[in-house]
Design a protein that fits this description.
With about 350 residues, this protein is an alpha+beta fold. It has two domains: about 250 residues, Glutathione synthase, substrate-binding domain superfamily, eukaryotic (Rossmann fold, 3-Layer(aba) Sandwich), CATH 3.40.50; about 90 residues, Dna Ligase, domain 1 (2-Layer Sandwich), CATH 3.30.1490.50. β5, α5 and β6 form a beta-alpha-beta unit.
């Protein structure tokens, strides 16, 4: 589960449209068969993600500060981001709505401290240097596509994130939502009784059925069991060692785990989790990437994008922790890689965006 800067939605949307177009124009029709367009599902990630941000913007409402003339969504981005093509379609979709939602981009770090400020009531005011108006823009929603890598958090990065976090703006994600993407938190949620703190017993049981075994690497009973697995070249073959980092390229796989653990101090082991490897079905496919066109055995990964908006409730007003305003499936991503490749990050060159072909079982 990824709750921070979940990327690929725009790419998956466009790749799905491309495959449907090629199917409709007969490119996939062979001598003895044709591809039914109905077997290729539509994907509306861009529209769904933009609509959820627009709903959050509308929920925030009119400017609370007397200084501001309008509200807007602020997308926080990384400098020189080569994945900008995944971000821009969402920005354009907001501006192109029948009732346009302004969205501005700002780089994470020093620019946040330079171009935004908090009022006494914690409204987040943005002063775009390129706008002729002297009135600031009040930020309704902060959409973070930066701030998920450890090296971004020097002193300036911490100050910038704090300014965003304590503001009145709706955060996507908030700090509490952000930490749920950490592997240690997800591992803790797999322990008996953890889900029952938030869900009914029946819902918790249904969700737990989707889990694969995940272990800590601390000195608890479960942790010592996991260390025995991780340090054995044979037993570790079916596992993945994961740190609490995002973006791909950070995991250690299978038989490489024992040597990796022996190369770092044992005191650092507890910052990792050990997850049983998922074994997806193998298909034969043709993959086209920036380097070449090649064929071979492949595996695929389906990702479901969710759109949620909720309001925290105080304990004095309700026995519930939050009020769910919106909760829907936004769309999907589908990624395919060669079966002998461990990682799946498309941005870092390990996989390819794809479209599933639906078949009768």
């Amino acid at each position: 589960m990824n709750t921070f800067s979940a990327s690929g939605g725009s790419h998956a949307n466009k790749v799905g449209n491309m495959h449907r177009y090629l199917a409709q124009t007969g490119v996939y029709n062979g001598k003895d068969k044709s591809l039914d367009i109905a077997s290729l599902p539509t994907n509306k990630n861009i529209e769904s993600l933009a609509s959820c941000l627009a709903l959050a913007h509308a929920t925030y409402g009119r400017p609370k500060s007397r200084e501001a003339g309008q509200t807007a969504v602020l997308m926080i981005v990384q400098p020189n981001n080569f994945n900008i093509a995944d971000e821009r379609p969402i920005e354009y979709a907001l501006w192109n709505r029948e009732d346009p939602v302004p969205m501005y981009r700002l780089e994470f770090g020093a620019d946040i401290l330079e171009y935004t400020r908090l009022t006494e009531d914690r409204e987040l005011l943005f002063h775009p240097p390129w706008l002729a108006s002297t009135a600031p823009v009040e930020i309704s929603v902060v959409y973070l596509r930066a701030g998920y890598e450890a090296e971004e958090y020097d002193h300036v990065g911490w100050e910038a994130r704090l300014q965003l976090e304590i503001s009145m703006a709706i955060k996507c994600p908030s700090l509490l939502s952000h930490i749920t993407t950490f592997k240690k938190v997800q591992q803790a949620l797999t322990t008996p009784g953890a889900l029952e703190r938030f869900l009914t017993a029946s819902h918790a049981a249904a969700i737990r059925e989707t889990f694969v075994p995940v272990y800590p690497l601390d000195e608890s009973e479960q942790g010592l069991f996991a260390r025995d697995l991780a340090c054995d070249p044979v037993k570790s073959a079916n596992y993945i060692l994961k740190p609490s980092l995002e973006g791909g390229g950070n995991n250690v796989y299978g038989a490489e785990i024992p040597d990796y653990l022996s190369s770092i101090p044992q005191a650092q082991w507890c910052s990792y989790i050990l997850m049983e490897r998922i074994q997806p079905p193998i298909q034969t496919n043709l993959l086209m990437g920036p380097e070449a066109l090649d064929s071979g055995e492949t595996v695929s990964e389906l990702g479901i994008l969710g759109c949620c908006l909720w309001e925290s409730l105080s304990e004095q007003t309700s026995d519930r922790r939050c009020k769910m305003i919106h909760n829907s499936v936004g769309g999907w991503t589908f990624k395919t890689k060669f079966a002998d490749v461990d990682e799946m990050s498309v941005v870092k060159g390990y996989g390819h965006f794809d479209t599933p072909r639906l078949m009768d079982s």
